[in-house]
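Researcher: Quick test of sequence recovery. Tokens follow.
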């Protein structure tokens, strides 16, 4: 009996479903339809928090094409370990592991396809998937400390211990503990850290203190920065005046040097400014920095006759 004749032209007009990739296969870079790649629900990075960076990536892709593919896992591999994220994935065939901003840039450009590499080995366990997402972000210089801390917290929850998370990230347990402690800080300190307005070294132990003490420490640091800027500004203006005087022949090098030196504050005066400038503000700063015993000792020393 003759078989049914197939019209190849009709087949060519039918849209093909996204190819299914076995869970054990790691594919070479390929293209996929953008709508078939779901965003990573476990990414703690605020992908859209810096639109200018997405714009820069979009411009690069427009000029040069997508130079680095996004790493993904298949829908089935992802939902096998995170079944509670079915709604987040929708009907997408793949779930992103890395390249959140690249995906956002492709969407911004309105492109129909995105380059991907399927690595289902990254979905062997929840911890492995989360550590792969966190590792890429942590290794990037623009990953702010709070995003980093949230990624570490998520991994600790999956691993059960800080030591386990440290092993997954190739970091030390104290490094993991330090990041977790950042999440105990007040929102105002989170904002300052994210904006790089205060360095990590200044907040390492603040999680042990009350809200008022944390905010006092932040205020003290901000006053210190402001006073430094003011002193630096005065020194720069003094330098400009010195250069102007010398250029006009209105003074000697020695005279200009004396003028510049006179504008500089003594170490004690500079320290007073850093502490707040007034007795009340100095006391507020020291209360945040010193233990009750140390404050008592300081008070006794200040009252003691020399």
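Model:
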């Amino acid at each position: 009996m003759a078989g049914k004749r197939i019209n190849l032209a009709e087949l060519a007009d039918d849209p093909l479903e996204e190819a299914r990739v076995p869970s054990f296969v790691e594919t070479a870079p390929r293209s996929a339809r953008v709508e078939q790649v779901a965003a990573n629900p476990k990414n703690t990075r605020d992908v859209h928090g810096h639109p200018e960076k997405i714009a820069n990536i979009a411009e690069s892709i427009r000029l040069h094409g997508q130079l680095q593919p996004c790493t993904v896992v298949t829908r089935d591999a992802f939902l096998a370990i995170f079944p509670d994220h079915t709604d987040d994935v929708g009907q997408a065939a793949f779930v992103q592991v890395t390249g959140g901003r690249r995906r956002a840039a492709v969407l911004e450009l309105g492109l129909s396809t995105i380059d991907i590499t399927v690595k289902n080995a990254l979905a062997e366990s929840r911890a492995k998937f989360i550590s792969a997402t966190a590792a890429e972000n942590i290794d990037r210089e623009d990953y702010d400390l709070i995003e980093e801390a949230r990624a570490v917290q998520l991994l600790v929850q999956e691993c059960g211990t800080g030591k386990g998370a440290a092993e997954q990230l190739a970091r030390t347990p104290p490094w993991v503990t330090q990041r977790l402690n950042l999440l105990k800080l007040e929102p105002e300190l989170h904002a300052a850290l994210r904006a790089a307005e205060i360095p990590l070294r200044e907040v390492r132990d603040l999680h042990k203190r009350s809200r008022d003490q944390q905010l006092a420490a932040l205020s003290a640091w901000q006053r210190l920065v402001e006073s430094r800027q003011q002193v630096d500004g005065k020194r720069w203006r003094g330098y400009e005046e010195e250069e102007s005087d010398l250029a006009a022949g209105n003074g000697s090098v020695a005279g200009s040097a004396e003028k510049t030196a006179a504008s500089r504050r003594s170490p004690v005066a500079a320290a007073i400014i850093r502490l707040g400038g007034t007795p009340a503000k100095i006391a507020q700063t020291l209360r945040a920095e010193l233990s009750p015993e140390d404050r008592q000792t300081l008070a006794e020393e200040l009252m003691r006759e020399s």
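The first helix runs from residue 8 to 13.
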